[in-house]
Amino acid sequence: xxxxxxxxxxxxxxxxxxxxxxxxxxxxxxxxxxxxxxxxxxxxxxxxxxxxxxxxxxxxxxxxxxxxxxxxxxxxxxxxxxxxxxxxxxxxxxxxxxxxxxxxxxxxxxxxxxxxxxxxxxxxxxxxxxxxxxxxxxxxxxxxxxxxxxxxxxxxxxxxxxxxxxx
Length: 167
Known about the structure:
Helix 2 packs across helix 5 (142-165), helix 3 crosses helix 4 and helix 4 crosses helix 5 (142-165). The chain has helices at 45-63, 66-74, 77-100, 108-132, 142-165, and strands at 2-4, 10-14, 17-25, 31-38. It folds into 2 domains: 2-38, no CATH class; 45-165, no CATH class. It is α+β, with helices and mostly antiparallel strands and 167 residues long.
């Protein structure tokens, strides 16, 4: 199946992935060849793995610092929620400009899935890591546990988004 993107450009699924097929023309307008450019607008299982690895890259060193544990205990919840909102905004802007800038209207749902997926997976990676190292007191102080996860998810989700953009 091919969809028109511009008068000359077509979008085709090749090998299970969407590609933009752009004709290369000479001065007279005769098509000489075609170039393929992958459209990274679908959030696939391989992207999930890239996000997991990317989230781990920054969450591991940050999760092992006492400053982060203290910050999670002392920072007001409103500030932590603001940090989470800022994280979602940064992820959204990065994903928009790197994946959806030219095809946003056709792929709004995929954009939402990618941004939410990156943030949610980052939260899971951070929560798992903090739980393993016994710095997420889920049973005794769940608010501190959540705050620590959200604080560390800020840099983890940024590195996850960057990792997702590498193809």
